[in-house]
Fold this sequence. Notes:
Chain A is mainly alpha-helical.
Amino acid sequence: MTIPASRKLWLGYAVAMLWLFALLWPLLGIKPEGLEFADSFALWSTLALASAILLAFWQLKQHGVFDFVSRPAEAVSTVFSKATGRVPSWIWLVLVLAGALVFPLLTERYAQDVAISVLVYICLGLGLNVVVGMAGLLDLGYIAFYGVGAYTYALLSVHFGLSFWLSLPIAGAFSACAGCIIGYPTLRMRGDYLAIVTLGFGEIVRIVLNNWMSLTNGPNGILGIKPPGAYWWSDGKIEHIWLGSLEQFYYVILALAVCTVVAVYRLNHSRIGRAFEAVREDQTAAELMGVNTLGIKLLAYSLGAIFGGLAGAFFAARMRFVSPESFTFIESAMVLAMVVLGGMGSIPGVILGALALIALPEVFRGFELYRMFVFGGVMAVMMIFRPKGLWPAKRMGTRSEERD
Amino acid sequence: MREPILELKNVSAAYGRIKAIKDISLVVYPGEVVSIIGANGAGKSTTLMSISGVLPLTGGEIYYDGARIDGIAADLLPARGLCQVPEGRRIFPRLTVEENLDMGAFFRKDKAGIAHDMNRVFQLFPILLERRRQHGGTLSGGEQQMLAMGRALMSRPRLLLLDEPSLGLAPLIVQQIFRIIREINEADGVTVVLVEQNANLALQASTRGYVLETGNVVMEDEAGALLANPDIRKAYLGE
């Protein structure tokens, strides 16, 4: 790097550090006892020193100082990626699935609990992915369908004693109906307006759940929901058992997640999925090609709602308790963040996004206080450096020039 | 007298309170190529959008194939053989060429027929066959225009509405596009309504023409007569 370029880099770095201090000090230094500088300065100087060292290393790397390490490392990584590229993708799938299957045998309760919530969010993320990623409809009230599914199973279980497996399709159907009811008036809008209206409807559902005392028991929630049942071979005869333990819940939600992945994958490669994408790309052109755009959007919306409803029914069974508190806007935002972070329209991306947003905060429990701070920072950095997500959707085909 | 395939009777349409076309009447007979020429903002594209049912009429009637079609949802028209290639091509950039073409046949269920028509499109536009697996958005402007036309042809239209097919294309490509318009018309028997700013080229390819000015039809004639008309030559052919 030339001297002027280097000077420009360090000047930019200095400005950024000044800006960081201006941001940090009001957060850490203004206290009820008065203004204080020492704390914020200590933290700031650590950050500044660390980033300066990193920047210096980066500059040295640009000069080729570390070539003696990076050259062989690069060679190894190309060989490795060539070797992995030759392995057919179904082997990876089988490996991942096998890993997921043996997971509860190797781990403890806590890890299983986290894994269950990751899988629930994978279902939710994939459902929202149909709406946001494929059909391009920005939905900020998606969690409403999760709530509808959860309450459907809760009420059916408590009042009518219906089994989980019977209630699952009913919960899906109710969510689809809710999707149609909410979608029919709102889906005529485009872009930002749709986002605002769905946000409103999401809140309406939560507030209705909160205030309809006679049906939902309001903020007190519904207690005594039964876990899923199953018939199992024990002591020489088939008996009915409750799948109440954590591993059993894990396998139930794993099955549900795998079904969701398969369904979304099939949808992605169907003509209907392509129509979703056509409507996303250019609504007028799709209409001119004979696509009933309102119908297609309604279909995408209610299909997404079904996946949300199924996950909701599981959530109710898992918690044995539902209350409106679980279905706030922050949950919608969380699911949307997973989809955007992972890569809109990409199934592995959404799975990665759910893993990153649910599992990582658990791993870093020690930094709980700063969790939202880090979360925001990571999102901002991601959107600058990888705007298409962790694992961007790979649409079939590349430019022929690129291939040659 | 032949039955017209398309007839507009005193059609008016507006964007909000701004009237874009006023009392337009025009007739298209089967097998014709009819061009609508005029300056920017004369209402050419608006006329096509009204025919396609995207823009609701404020007055008048549209008949297609003997039946009234104004007020019918836009997405039902391609199945009846009326398809539009919109201005600016508007292909689906993140779908592949093949998928774009398949979207054109969205309402059709006959797989064999679709495959047959796709072959016909590839025959008309060999470059699309070459780029079959590429994203629509990575094509050049001319290729995108071909893709848009191919996509419309996938619906097996009897009446094709073409909005500014020459927009922003190199002269050589434009000639190629117009050659194909003639071929579609002659070999496949598709009736074509052509909206163009490039009046010279459009009229040379057409049987008849309409001239639009600020939302009104100011002239209609055989294409040859319009080409010879001194007023037209002065206003639209740059003489």
